[in-house]
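Figure 3 (text version): C-alpha cells given as input.
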C-alpha cells in the first residue's frame, strides 16, 4: 500500500512538472511572438521612464526637509558651543542662503550630469543597440535609489543624484529610441510615444505626493526602497524578454549618423530648440512656485504638495488629442507643436495674476496641456527626420532630445531662484511666456517635413554596393556608362554635356528627379 501511494504521488508530481514545463514553453512562445514582444518592450520602457521621473521628483518633498533637520541638529550643537556669540543672526542668514544653494545644486546635479553624458551615450547606443544600454541604465538607477534610501549626509545624496543622471542618460535615450525602432509605422509610433509620455507625466506629477505621504508616515527609506524594488523587477523583465547578451540583431545594425551631424541638421535643431523652450516654464516653476504660493496665497503644505497633480489629466488629454489628430492629419504635426507653445506662453503669463490655489490650477493645467502637444507632435518627428534624411538608427537623435530636456532642467533649480530674487516672479513668468510665443513661428520650417521622401543619394550609395534586381542592374550599368560618355541602351550613343543621349530627348537629370527625393 505504501509503495502504491508513493508511486501515485510520484506520478502526480511528474504530471504537474510536465504541465508546468508545457506552460513555460507556451509562455516562451508567446513572448517570442513579434506583436506581443513589442507590447512587452513598450511596458518595459514605460516602467523605466516612470521610475526615472518618479526618482527625479520624489525627492522634492523629502530632501529639503531631511537636510533641514540635519542642518538644525548641527546648528543646535553649534549654538551650544557658541552661546555668547553676538553674530548669530548674520551666521543664520548666511547658512540659510547656503542651504538654498545646496538644495538647488543637488536638484540640478542629475540634469547636469545627464547633459554631459548624453552625447557619449547616444553614440554608444548607436554602436551596440538599445537593449544593453537600457539594462545598464536600470542597473545604475537601482544602485542610485538604494544609495538614496540609506544616505544620511549631503555628499552621499549628491553622489546618488548624480548617479541617477548617469542612469537616465542610458535608460531614457535607449528606451525612447527602442520604441521608435520597434514601431516603424508613423501612426503606431506616435501612439507608442504618446503612451511613454503619459508614463513620464504620471511619474513626474504623482511622485511628490507619493514621496511626501510615505516620508511623513513611514520614514525616508520606504519610498526609495519601494522604487528600487520596481526598478529591480523591470530589470529582470528586461533580461528575460530582451535577452540583451544573447541578441544578434546589433550585428546587422547599420552605422548611425554621428551626433554632431544630427545637431547641425536645421530641422532637428528646430525641434530640439522647441523641446527646450517648452519645458523651461515647468523646469523654472517647480523650484520657485512653492515659496511664491506661501508668500502671496498663504498656502498650506497640502496645497503646495498637490499643486501639479491636477495638471496630469490635461497632459493625458493633450497626448490623446495629438495622437488622434496626427493619425488623421499627419501633415500638421508642426502646427500642433506651435499651438502647444502658444498655449504654454499664454498660460505662463497668467500664473502671476492668480490669487488663490483654485485659480492657479488653470494656468498650470494649460502649461502641461501645451507641453503634451509639443512633445507628442515633435518626438515622432525626430524619428521621421532620421528616417528620411539620415540613417534609421535612433540613439543619437533621442540623445539630442534628452539634451534638450536636460538644458531646461539643469538651469531651472540654479537660475530660476536667482531671477526671482533679482527681477521678481512675475517677470520670470512673462519672460518664459514670451519666449514660447516667439519661438512658435520657427516650427513653420517643419511644415513640409511630411512631404519628404528617403534621400536619393542614400539609394545611390546602396546601388554602389551592388545591385539586387534586374532594374537596379540596368540602372547601375547606365550610370557607369554615362560617366564614360556612352549609353548601354543605345549602342554607344554619344552623350552631350547636359547628359542627354542622341535620339533620346530625356536628360539624366530629369530621370533622376522623377524619383523620390527631398522637397
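Below: residues designed for each position.
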Amino acid at each position: 500500500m505504501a509503495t502504491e501511494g508513493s508511486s501515485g504521488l510520484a506520478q502526480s508530481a511528474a504530471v504537474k512538472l510536465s504541465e508546468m514545463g508545457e506552460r513555460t514553453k507556451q509562455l516562451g512562445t508567446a513572448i517570442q511572438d513579434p506583436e506581443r514582444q513589442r507590447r512587452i518592450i513598450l511596458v518595459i520602457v514605460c516602467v523605466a521612464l516612470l521610475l526615472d521621473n518618479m526618482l527625479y521628483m520624489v525627492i522634492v518633498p523629502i530632501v529639503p526637509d531631511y537636510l533641514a533637520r540635519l542642518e538644525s541638529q548641527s546648528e543646535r550643537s553649534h549654538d551650544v558651543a557658541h552661546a555668547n556669540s553676538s553674530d548669530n543672526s548674520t551666521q543664520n542668514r548666511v547658512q540659510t542662503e547656503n542651504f538654498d544653494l545646496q538644495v538647488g545644486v543637488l536638484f540640478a546635479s542629475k540634469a547636469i550630469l545627464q547633459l554631459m553624458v548624453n552625447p557619449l551615450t547616444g553614440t554608444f547606443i548607436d554602436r551596440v543597440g538599445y537593449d544593453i544600454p537600457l539594462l545598464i541604465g536600470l542597473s545604475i538607477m537601482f544602485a542610485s535609489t538604494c544609495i538614496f534610501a540609506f544616505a544620511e549626509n549631503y555628499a552621499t545624496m549628491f553622489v546618488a543624484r548624480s548617479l541617477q543622471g548617469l542612469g537616465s542618460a542610458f535608460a531614457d535615450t535607449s528606451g525612447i529610441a527602442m520604441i521608435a525602432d520597434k514601431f516603424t509605422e508613423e501612426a503606431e509610433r506616435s501612439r507608442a510615444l504618446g503612451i511613454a509620455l503619459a508614463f513620464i507625466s504620471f511619474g513626474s506629477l504623482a511622485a511628490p505626493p507619493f514621496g511626501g505621504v510615505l516620508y511623513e508616515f513611514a520614514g525616508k527609506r520606504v519610498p526609495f526602497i519601494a522604487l528600487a524594488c520596481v526598478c529591480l523587477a523591470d530589470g529582470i523583465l528586461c533580461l528575460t524578454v530582451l535577452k540583451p547578451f544573447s541578441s544578434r540583431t546589433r550585428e546587422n545594425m547599420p552605422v548611425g549618423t554621428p551626433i554632431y551631424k544630427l545637431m547641425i541638421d536645421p530641422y532637428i535643431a528646430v525641434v530640439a530648440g522647441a523641446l527646450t523652450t517648452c519645458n523651461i516654464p515647468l523646469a523654472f516653476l517647480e523650484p520657485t512656485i512653492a515659496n511664491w504660493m506661501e508668500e502671496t496665497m498663504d498656502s498650506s503644505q497640502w496645497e503646495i504638495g498637490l499643486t501639479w497633480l491636477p495638471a496630469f489629466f490635461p497632459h493625458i488629454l493633450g497626448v490623446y488629442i495629438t495622437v488622434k489628430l496626427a493619425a488623421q492629419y499627419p501633415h500638421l504635426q508642426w502646427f500642433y507643436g506651435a499651438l502647444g507653445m502658444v498655449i504654454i506662453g499664454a498660460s505662463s503669463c497668467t500664473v502671476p495674476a492668480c490669487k488663490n490655489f483654485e485659480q492657479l490650477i488653470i494656468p498650470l493645467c494649460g502649461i502641461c496641456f501645451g507641453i503634451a502637444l509639443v512633445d507628442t507632435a515633435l518626438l515622432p518627428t525626430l524619428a521621421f527626420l532620421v528616417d528620411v534624411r539620415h540613417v534609421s538608427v535612433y540613439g543619437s537623435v533621442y540623445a539630442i532630445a534628452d539634451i534638450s530636456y536636460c538644458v531646461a532642467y539643469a538651469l531651472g533649480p540654479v537660475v530660476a531662484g536667482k531671477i526671482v530674487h533679482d527681477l521678481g516672479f512675475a517677470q520670470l513668468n512673462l519672460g518664459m511666456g514670451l519666449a514660447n510665443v516667439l519661438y512658435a513661428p520657427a516650427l513653420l520650417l517643419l511644415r513640409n517635413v511630411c512631404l519628404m521622401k528617403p534621400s536619393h543619394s542614400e539609394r545611390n550609395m546602396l546601388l554602389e554596393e551592388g545591385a539586387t534586381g534586374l532594374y537596379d542592374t540596368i540602372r547601375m550599368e547606365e550610370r557607369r556608362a554615362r560617366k564614360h560618355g556612352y549609353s548601354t541602351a543605345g549602342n554607344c550613343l554619344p552623350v552631350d554635356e547636359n547628359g542627354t543621349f542622341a535620339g533620346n530627348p530625356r536628360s539624366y537629370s530629369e530621370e533622376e528627379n522623377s524619383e523620390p527625393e527631398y522637397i
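Residues 88-128 form the longest helix (41 residues).
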